[in-house]
Amino acid sequence: MMKKAFLFLLLITSLLISYGQIERPDKEGKLEKERQEKELYDKYINNSLENGSTPYANCYGVNKHCPDEGCSEISIKSPLNSDVLVNIKSEGKVVRHAYISAGNIVTFEVPDGIYQPFFYYGKGWNPEKPMKSNTDCPLTGGFISDESFGKDDPQELNNSILEYELILQPNGNFSTIPSNPSEAF
Length: 185
Known about the structure:
Layout: H1 2-18, H2 25-44, H3 57-60, E1 71-77, E2 83-90, E3 93-100, E4 105-111, E5 113-131, E6 139-151, E7 155-157, E8 161-165, E9 177-178, H4 181-184
Parallel strand pairs: 1-8
Antiparallel strand pairs: 1-4, 2-3, 2-5, 5-6, 5-7, 6-9
């Protein structure tokens, strides 16, 4: 008799689960994850760093000044509608980086050489967000909305000034080359 009651209870429970009367743990987990994501979004969507900040200084160091001779500059103006984190690479390694708030400018001083800029656009800076990186140093901090990556071709600089004015505009007359986190960081 006890065995039949147990089987009947098991059958009823199975039917209730299959008809959605009892929430399954995976559905509860999904709802909890969505709640946490919304909480993070609400917390950071309006967060922005100070213009010129170096959020990855623990991995890339601070931006160095260049001596007077044999130096060039890379000047970047961010779009009016998006913040951007810029990584400047030389020989595949990040040598300068900075956070540029919407509508602002940062100028990097670099020794003459060949440099490639990478652009990480977005809104809402989450200082706790883990980022993919090709280095042994873990990068922390990233955008939570409207993320996109771009780059330009490597540019040879010799006592020159290279200027970028970034405008997020569909079908504009200059487009950065698509990129991704693995390449940019």
